[in-house]
Design brief:
- By secondary structure, this protein is of the alpha/beta class.
- It has a single domain, classed as Rossmann fold, CATH 3.40.50.
- 41% of the residues lie in helices and 12% in strands.
- The chain contains nine helices and five strands; from the N terminus they run H-H-E-H-H-E-H-E-H-H-E-H-E-H.
- It has a five-stranded parallel beta sheet, sandwiched between helices.
- Helix 8 links the parallel strand 4 and strand 5.
- Helix 5 packs parallel to helix 7.
- It is globular, with a radius of gyration of 16 Å.
Length: 231
């Protein structure tokens, strides 16, 4: 797959980037609190099973949802149904940035038998207007750390609205397919495809997916994840 061509797909959804404002730390702290360097709840881990780590912010953590409604939990059920013997670890932290992700990636990758990392970070970097080159370096280091442990990576692309300026928008949107091409990792252009802007698939805040939206989000991930899994 030519990941650079995926950029045109992302640009088609660029306006939806405003929805990521709800992933900010202030909201997360009010809702959850706790140590920002670790997942909200330490999952129970079976050391003998190969693991898929869902690593990201509130979209991964399942903000406003029950555990069984979050996309990592739904992904676990989907994998079981299709005969894949993997354990999915929800390592999502609401409000996380690429800086926070880099700070806790070693702890996450240090778990036994991690085979796949679903990397979904960058929305809160946009919210804080972090320099794109700094975010890109952080994401690159996370990918490098995973690959150093022979962990496969599925990178989830993020978006930027026109209001951030044409140059920032261009650099930001291009970051994800550029990284996917450089490191030869699998790439999901837009996690919220067919979910964003649909009031029937989002919570009252208009930002985070509701239970049905999370299910569709899981299907987006699964479509790109399935080819890299071994039964």
């Amino acid at each position: 797959m030519n990941h650079l061509r995926q950029t045109s797909i992302i640009l088609g959804f660029v306006i939806t980037a405003i929805f990521f404002a709800g992933c900010g730390v202030s909201t997360a702290e009010k809702q959850f609190g706790g140590d920002p360097k670790k997942p909200l709840a330490t999952p129970q881990i079976a050391a003998d099973k190969p693991k898929i780590v869902a690593f990201g912010d509130s979209l991964t953590a399942g903000f406003g949802l029950t555990e069984k409604e979050s996309y990592p939990y739904l992904l676990q059920e989907k994998l079981k149904k299709d005969g894949f013997d993997y354990e999915v670890v929800n390592a999502g932290v609401s409000g996380d940035t690429s800086i926070g992700g880099l700070e806790r990636i070693d702890w996450v990758l240090g778990q036994e038998n991690v085979q796949v990392l679903i990397l979904e970070l960058g929305a809160n970097d946009l919210l804080r207007r972090m320099p794109v080159d700094k975010m890109k370096r952080n994401l690159a280091q996370m990918i490098e750390k995973a690959q150093a442990k022979n962990v496969k990576v599925l990178l989830c692309g993020m978006l930027a609205p026109p209001s951030v300026g044409a140059e920032y928008q261009r650099q930001y949107v291009n970051t994800f397919p550029d990284l996917a091409d450089k490191y030869k990792v699998e790439f999901l252009p837009f996690l919220l495809e067919n979910v964003a802007l649909n009031k029937n698939l989002n919570q009252a805040d208009g930002i985070h997916p509701n239970a049905e939206g999370a299910r569709l989000m899981m299907e987006n991930v699964y479509k790109e994840l399935k080819p890299i899994l071994a039964k």
